[in-house]
Amino acid sequence: MNFKINTKSFLFSILLVPLFSISKEEKNGNHNRIKANLATNNFIEKDSVIIKNGYQLTVRNSDPKLSNEFKNNIAERFFDAYPKMLEHFNPKATKSVIIIFSDADTDHPAHAINNEITVFTKFFTKPVRDKDIDVIVHEGFHLIQAYPESKNTPGWLVEGIADYVREIYGLSNAESGWVLPGTLDDKGNKYQASYRTTARFLLWVDKNFKRGIVEILDDKCRTGTYTSEIWKKETNKTIDELWDDYVKNYNKFPNN
Ligand SMILES: [Zn+2]
């Protein structure tokens, strides 16, 4: 959900965190290193370092009340979605990720910063919400975005792209009640509404005007070169013209 990035510490963490993580965990004697089949083992009972296909996931668990099933599902989903997203959008993104399950009392369910994702467990213990495994797709994509701080990059686009990616790479969105809006809301929200509203708009533009528009926008954000003129260049319409068209043709999807 929340997205924060610090360029200097991001670079620092790419270089140093993998080694640091391993040595710290080994020193504490408090980890399980597992290369086994994730699908068939309940393994995340305490802090763990999992290495698979060149990716390293460090899991830190500070909420003993959280079910092993939820933690295992999150780890499995990470190893399913994160490598695919990284290869497709940003092969230079970090391959060493830390997930912290925290019982802290916060107003938001999760956030991502540098190479670290924190999941606030009080949001994920209720029925249905405990199926919200694809939260890790959204948050994982923030690490792949790795956008530098730039006044050119709008926050609504950062979150809109992360939810667009969640729609594409998520495996159990509907099961957890997470769906893109089925109708236009009447609150006057536009593409700047962020999250799912923006994601649905991005999906529509991709299908109707410019295949790959999200990849282009993502790349521009990563180089700090996003401007609103990109929409006109890529689709021959301004973003406001696209939105007006979207309102009229909301349910128009080719081959759909
Ligand atoms: Zn987010």
Main structural class: alpha/beta
- Please tally the β strands and state the result: 7
| Overall pLDDT level | 85
Instruction: Give every kind of bound small molecule, once each.
Output: zinc ion
Shape estimate: globular
The figure for the number of domains is: 2
Distance between the termini: 29 Å
How much strand content do the residues show?
5-15%
Could you list the spans in which at least 5 consecutive residues all have pLDDT below 50? Answer: 4-41
- Order of the strands making up the biggest sheet: 1-6-7-5-4-3-2
The largest sheet, given as strand count, sense and whether it forms a barrel, is: 7 strands, mixed
Number of helices: 8
Instruction: Give helix % range.
Output: 40-55%
Q: C-alpha Rg, in Å? A: 19 Å
H/E element order: EHEEEHEEEHHHHHH
Name the features.
256 residues; alpha/beta; 2 domains; 7-stranded mixed beta sheet; 8 helices; 7 strands; 43% helix; globular; binds zinc ion; Secretory protein; Uncharacterised_BSP
Write the layout of secondary structure elements.
Layout: E1 2-4, H1 7-28, E2 32-34, E3 48-52, E4 55-61, H2 68-89, E5 96-102, E6 110-113, E7 116-120, H3 135-145, H4 155-169, H5 195-208, H6 213-222, H7 229-235, H8 239-248
Parallel strand pairs: 1-6, 2-3, 4-5, 5-7
Antiparallel strand pairs: 3-4, 6-7
Helix pairs in contact: 2-3, 3-4, 4-5
The chain binds zinc ion (ZN).
Zinc ion binds next to helix 3 and helix 4.
